[in-house]
User: Fold this.
Amino acid sequence: MPVAIITGASKGLGRALAEALAARGWDLVLDARGAGPLAKAAEAVAGHGRRVEALPGDVTDAGHRSELVAAARKLGGVDLVVSNASALGAEPLLRLAELPLAGLRRALEVNVVAALGLVQEALPLLRESPAGAVVAVSSDAAAEAYETWGGYGASKAALDQLAAVLGAEEPGLRVWAVDPGDMATDLYTAAVPDDDDPRPAPGSVVPAFLRLLDERPASGRYAAPALAEGR
Assistant:
């Protein structure tokens, strides 16, 4: 069975994607910082009858990233890496004039450096897979100038560029940066706590990610709403 590593998998998009892949027969290695929520998510995902390894930890820790890949190797290899774990840089978000540089560094470490570090660790196994793929969960803030989203958006723009270059350097893999669009997540609530407008559930965008895996288009940047609409 194919094996995926998903970071930030205890809730939101990460958990929704894990459940969808398990329902399709994937074995999974799941990561999140909170051990309790991750254990609950893993229990729900394992209900689909698949093997699930849940490893709590911080993706900025190189040792933790090694553990994730080692767990996947024991399940049979790595066919997919999903870099979904994200940090905002400030909660709630702040204008660049007030953004703590320590917060920006944290966003870059989680969203960019750790994502590349995990791919580097998994790359030998991804190359061995008959359908190796990397998904970098991006944001429209990577491409649009939204007030207060500068630090987070800059980190996601850097992630997009890493994904683009990785796709060029590893033609045997598929490397997709995916903008999931608006979602009702804890991350968004932390970013803009006074915005109570309704937003789609994370599960609503999962079909777009599954379409990428089914059709395996060229490496590049994709928007989940467009994929879901067949564009």
The first helix runs from residue 12 to 23.
